[in-house]
Amino acid sequence: MNALHVTDLSFAYGTQSVLEHVSLTYTCKDLLAIIGPNGGGKSTLLKLILGLIEPQSGTLQVFGKSPKDATSDLAYVPQNTNTNLHFPITAFEVVLMGCLKPRSFGFFSKADKDKAADALARVGMSAFSNAKIGELSGGQRQRVFIARALCAQAKLLLLDEPTASVDTEGQRHIFELLQTINNTMGVIVVSHDINVVLGYATKIAHINRQLYMHDAPSQATKEAILSTLHNAQGHLCPVELISAHTCTHPDHKAPHA
């Protein structure tokens, strides 16, 4: 069964068309990246998959069900993890919130706590279990929120711009983590970081009202991109994507030929 099956889907906000005749089939074996310009419909498609809004025409099924009937199969990590950074809650407590079943007397069970600890370990954040969420870096917070999503034990993980405001090294680490997670569950990620996306995604969907699917680049191209990502020192731009070479900052001497 396909994890996601979209057929001839369209959606508009008032008279403003956002998605037009979109069709997409996705299986959990792929790390699918959704790219495209601002306003192209990326976030709207995520909302439709999550069941927050409904298609105005066409069909959308998640694991053979309507999105509203498939909520237990989905886990979601929002773009903004900077909310309430001064609230005195630890990384472990944030992850524990991913155990969504009703509790007796408001307490979490030992099984819930073990599940949260395992999720933190899976994202490499066990050492920060007792750290306040506001004390963590942007990349570390994203890992914590990914761990919270993993606690839901869903079949498909959806992420909206998980590397926004994260430096190049943090972007690489997060996508390496998503690549590992994709071994056991589906991963769909909306991203503007085309340089990173091309290095890790196995399928790429470009959306600008209409959707076009692309296979991942060749292995040789991916290795060149990943090499550039590993060697980047705080700077990464589309020039590297085209040439697979690192740009030279004006303040640095160009390498000898």
TrEMBL record:
The keyword Protein transport does not apply. InterPro entries: AAA+_ATPase, ABC_transporter-like_ATP-bd, ABC_transporter-like_CS, Metal_Ion_Import_ABC, P-loop_NTPase. The keyword Nucleotidyltransferase does not apply. It comes from the Bacteria. Transmembrane segments: none annotated. Pfam families: ABC_tran. Keywords: ATP-binding, Nucleotide-binding, Transport. GO terms for molecular function: ATP binding. Residues 4-234 form the ABC transporter domain. Belongs to the ABC transporter superfamily. This is ABC transporter ATP-binding protein. It comes from Sulfurospirillum tamanense.
